[in-house]
């Protein structure tokens, strides 16, 4: 039996503690993302329901409700894309990697992952330009600068990168199918 030195024991404990802290931070990040989606979807539902009721009962409607609902849908789409990717819910054509052997399939998935990250970074850059160009144009009803609506694009792709990096090891090991089998994944039809 070998006795561990105090420094070795601290190293093992700090590694375990840092791993636990990283998992806790990831859980907080996922929950914040989920609650943001819930809040946006709830706001959309209340807004549309209220507008329908007002239109039906009073023959008047909220003039800006359609516009705001549309803008919330844009935010919902971009903010939710990262969680969808994380759980393997995005479309993936994996016929080639299924035919390839283990090492070749992992290499192909690594290439696909690199291409995805490059695409996400490109979309953040393009979104930033789009936001800058539309910041002085305003929406018809609410007079909100379009830049704030299109800010969903770089933020959403930033979240996509974070979510993808957090599940990258699982993706490289087994592809999108492996992401669908993770413990916190919602049920996926298929």
TrEMBL record:
Keywords: Cell inner membrane, Cell membrane, Membrane, Transmembrane, Transmembrane helix, Transport. InterPro entries: DctQ, TRAP_DctQ. One of its GO terms (biological process) is C4-dicarboxylate transport. It is found in: Cell inner membrane. Pfam families: DctQ. GO terms for cellular component: plasma membrane. It comes from the Bacteria. Signal peptide: none annotated. It is a multi-pass membrane protein. The chain crosses the membrane at residues 35-57, 72-96, 108-127, 147-168. GO terms for molecular function: transmembrane transporter activity. The complex comprises the extracytoplasmic solute receptor protein and the two transmembrane proteins. Belongs to the TRAP transporter small permease family. This is TRAP transporter small permease protein. It comes from Pseudorhizobium banfieldiae.
């Amino acid at each position: 039996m070998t006795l561990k030195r105090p420094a070795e024991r601290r190293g093992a404990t700090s590694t375990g503690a840092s791993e636990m802290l990283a998992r806790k931070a990831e859980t907080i990040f996922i929950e914040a993302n989920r609650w943001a989606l819930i809040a946006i979807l709830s706001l959309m539902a209340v807004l549309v329901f209220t507008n329908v009721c007002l239109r039906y009962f009073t023959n008047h409607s909220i003039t800006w409700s359609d516009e705001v609902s549309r803008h919330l849908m844009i935010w919902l789409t971009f903010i939710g894309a990262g969680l969808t990717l994380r759980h393997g819910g995005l479309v993936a054509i994996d016929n080639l990697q299924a035919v390839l052997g283990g090492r070749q399939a992992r290499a192909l998935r690594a290439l696909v992952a690199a291409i995805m990250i490059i695409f996400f970074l490109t979309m953040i850059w393009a979104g930033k330009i789009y936001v800058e160009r539309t910041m002085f144009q305003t929406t018809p009803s609410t007079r909100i600068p379009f830049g704030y609506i299109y800010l969903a694009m770089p933020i959403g792709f930033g979240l996509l990168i974070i979510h993808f990096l957090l599940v990258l090891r699982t993706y490289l090991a087994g592809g999108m199918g492996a992401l669908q089998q993770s413990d916190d994944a919602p049920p996926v039809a298929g």
